[in-house]
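Bug #77: duplicate submission created two jobs. Keeping one. Sequence:
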Amino acid sequence: MSLSPADGAAYWLRWQVLVCGALIALPTVAAAALLPRLRSSAPPLRAADLWVPCWARLHPGWLLAYRAVALAAAVALLARLVVARGITVFYFYTQWTFLLVTIYFAFATAISAHGCLVYSRKSLRKADESRGLLNADVENRDVSNSVSGERKTDETNMMMSYYEQIVNERRAGFWGRCMEIIYQTSAGATMLTDVTYWGLLVPFFYRDKFGLALFTDGMHSLNAVFLLIDTLLNNMPFPWYRMSFFVFWSCAYVTFQWVLHACGGVSWWPYPFLDLSSSGAPLWYLGMAIAHVPCFFLYWLIVKAKHTYFQRMFPHAYVRAT
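Kept job's structure:
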């Protein structure tokens, strides 16, 4: 007999609920236990890694500009969806993930703006020091061509020397670490969202069953596009142990759905594989839990390939985060 959450205790006392609950709780406990041990062995995050591009001759203002544009586009798309469909769009994991991506770009834009301010101040001080040295050279030796060449070289290498100095920069603060965690959680969640949507829901289920519109479908592509472009530009590390936060994020979403259904807030499941009424529900939950590993490591491999190949192809232009 098929049951629904509206049937009350009979639905939640089925054996499938206990097994699926274990599949949610065990990864969460494992991630919480392993995270402190793995994090202690990782190098500290530098504040400059959050806003300095990985391209030595690219001014940080370009990364700031991209992040501001991405933030504006994400906010506009999300606002349009909420206005059209209401707050119930946040029943879906897609909108949870897109909101997280939007929050990341809000953090990234603010921190990049602060970083550019710091960079401009240091650049002005370096320029003043350079002008002082050049003026002293003019007084000591009347070789205008040499002075002009030194000035040009100094302006060209100013950004390069700054990148060399960031090794000794202070560590990132609380908000910087939050930005890094949100970035890495968004990366894994975006991969899971897009792979599930385009690889499972679209081929095997009718889209009109979910009431998705064209701009909703676009969220399943734009979220990855926004993050991948930022990854190509930024200098942020991507340690594999940050998958723990990705696990926390997905488990929080499933817990939210369970609480919502248990309290009678909604009677339908946004995704058919979350429904606990079938005997195959534990297999669906197990499959989705396992899918977190390749989805996160797919993005990790993208970052790894970026470091490996860009460093070989552009040895003088590419700067890798330590």
